[in-house]
Amino acid sequence: MTRRPTILDVAALAGVSKSTVSLVLQNSTQVKAETRDAVRAAMIEIGYVYNRAAAQMRSPSAGLVGLVINDLRNPFFTEFATVLQMTLAAKGYATVIANSDEDADLQAKLVGSMIEHGVSALVVSPAYGDGGDAFDQIERAGIPAMQVLRKTDPRTGLFPFSSFDYAAGSARATRHLMNQGAQRIAFVGGLEGRAITEERKSGYLAEIKRAGAEPFSLHGRSSRGFGLDAVDQLPDDVDAAVCFNDLVALGMLSGFARIGRNLGQDFRLVGFDDIEDCAQVWPQLSSVACDIDGFARATADGLLAWMRDGVTPPPEHRAPVELIARTSSTGRMP
Amino acid sequence: MTRRPTILDVAALAGVSKSTVSLVLQNSTQVKAETRDAVRAAMIEIGYVYNRAAAQMRSPSAGLVGLVINDLRNPFFTEFATVLQMTLAAKGYATVIANSDEDADLQAKLVGSMIEHGVSALVVSPAYGDGGDAFDQIERAGIPAMQVLRKTDPRTGLFPFSSFDYAAGSARATRHLMNQGAQRIAFVGGLEGRAITEERKSGYLAEIKRAGAEPFSLHGRSSRGFGLDAVDQLPDDVDAAVCFNDLVALGMLSGFARIGRNLGQDFRLVGFDDIEDCAQVWPQLSSVACDIDGFARATADGLLAWMRDGVTPPPEHRAPVELIARTSSTGRMP
DNA sequence: GCTTGGAATTGGAACGTTCCAGATTTAGCG
DNA sequence: CGCTAAATCTGGAACGTTCCAATTCCAAGC
User: Could you count the other beta carbons within 10 Å of the beta carbon of residue B46?
Assistant: First the structure.
């Protein structure tokens, strides 16, 4: 097997200089159309593949974006990652996706590895815990980086934070349940003390307080399993719940099926995130919809503007959310 | 902002030559311990970050593995991708994950981009359709590459194929349903004509034929939505089903909840893949378990052996599967 | 003190691209 | 036809690392 062809080989075959080939590679306007075509033809004939490492050495702009996600198995994050990756791919950027699995140390390692690989920007949905290491590395490297969906680095402006207006969402859900006639509403799921839990809960608490009612909350892992068990631990007078996320709500939905309670009538339930499953279970699950696809696209666009034109995104941004009322809270069949 | 430090700067500070620094970088045994420590200290002091692009230029071994997945939103693939990435990360390899979204053209683009980025190996779960472009590119680049979970490139040996023994799994599931007393068993889900559908169905057909029974199948998208609707389209005498995958089965499970049929008694259901949700819905869903984590780890190990030691994996490998019987088919509560 | 051989270190070349400054060609115009 | 300006093209130099062959260092043995 022979050595990979380089632009030198292409140049020789096309009868031009390597500089011209380089210009063609960069779609420069200052090369004549017929020369360009000749060079392109030579590339194909010779089976040339671009050597990004060499290019990157000379001028460090990799066309590579790093994406570190705390829990890639969670459909919410998967959706985000997928759409972000595809949007960036459409603009010619490759995306390195990695899963930190809620491990701050692993997260730091992944970030380090990505920086070594020369990513030109990073998007991080940070793991809980001290993300200091990771963010310090990014700061030293001087790379544009955003915190999305979660914020663990407190310095404002350095790593712009972008997420959804969760508090407004849970407030909206709580009011909706009250309007449906719920007497006592619980908040279920999310690990206590964590920023997102508190944020999603804050809207609930505000509305409960405004109505002069008594709050009740049950905290734990944000999984179906937790939701499944949670139904047994609710006080008897609780007849509605706002869940930390859809996984918990879907778990509870299965839990009510188990104990034979009729969701949407005996009990009213609202999830959070509106993942695809919500409309595909029975009864259909009401949920606070976050437009992840739109959010991911906006993130990609903001990042591109930052990388290419130096336009720093606003230090903090919250995308609006929307309540999707379905059977599990209204009792009405679709 | 000043220029990034290089090994030259580190060398100057540590009072050694660049070659020595390079040796330290590679954990060479032939550098004295105290020199090594001095160099390491200098690196930290000066804030040195390794420039992989430069290294890669000189000796092309990127420590980068490409992973192209046909549908990253499917939990089955997400799990595989996640574990593969984490296993490789533990061995010092970064993974570029990309989603082709069942688009063969996009898949070819992604593969091309990864090759440009200098991946030292590729793992592809190919999109349906003509993956020729993608695989031809890989062949030209001469990179180790595996087809996993799906096979679209027919050439044997070039791109070793590794998957699960689906036929044995569906046969096992079908026998299990018969043993449970099912009278008429259907096969539900999967797009007709596709290799995996046929494979998963073949075990079912073989067992049905062996029992002298009449097969019945319902094909379509492998989603919860399809399963949800499928329950309305089953003939009345069908009292059990083997599903193409868990998503379809979970959809059917919701469908039976909707029409108030008692799963595990009126109807017996087995899914395929044993995704996490199976044990977290009600009733719990029986499923043919594929040990994805083990499979992903084995894939990573095989790939590493191939990359590092030139050990080609067997051209075709099928990992065993296991039936996990739960309430949806046995009627027994856990 | 001198030799010896292994351990430790070193300088230079090479990798394939981009960028720059200049060189060459082409086109337009009096 | 000669001049100028614009359009095109080109030959180094540079990027930061690794690899190789060569050199220096050091301790042990005589």
Answer: 14
Most A CBs within 10 Å, among B84, B113, B137, to test the A interface: B113
Q: Are B251 and B285 in contact (CB under 8 A)?
A: no
Q: Quick check: A333 pLDDT over 70?
A: yes
Q: Is residue A96 part of a domain?
A: yes
How crowded is residue A160: how many other Cβ atoms within 10 Å of its Cβ?
21
Q: Are A116 and A262 found together in one domain? A: no
CATH number for position B141: 3.40.50.2300
Query: Would you say residue A58 lies in a domain?
Result: no
Q: Which amino acid is at B117?
A: H
Residue of A72, A74, A252, A256 to mutate, testing the B interface (most B Cβ within 10 Å of its Cβ) = A72
Residue B35 covered by a domain: yes
Given a contact cutoff of 8 angstroms between Cβ atoms, the answer to whether A284 and A328 are in contact is yes
% of chain A residues with pLDDT over 90:
67
pLDDT tens, A54-93? 888 887 766 789 999 999 988 889 999 999 998 998 888 8
Arithmetic mean of pLDDT, A249-255? 96
- Determine the structural domain holding residue B25 and report its residue range: 7-50
Nucleotides of D under 7 A from a protein CB: 7-12, 14-21
Mean pLDDT by 10 residues, chain B (334 residues): 82 92 90 90 90 85 86 89 91 86 90 88 90 86 91 88 96 98 97 91 97 96 93 96 96 94 94 92 95 95 87 94 97 84
Judge whether B56 lies within some domain: no
Within 13 Å, how many C-alpha atoms sit on residue B12's CB side?
A: 7
Nearest-by-Cβ selection for B282 from A117, A257, A279: A257
Those residues with Cβ within 8 angstroms of residue A116's Cβ, 6 or more apart along the chain or in another chain: B49, B50, B51, B52
A8 touches strand C (CB under 7 A): yes
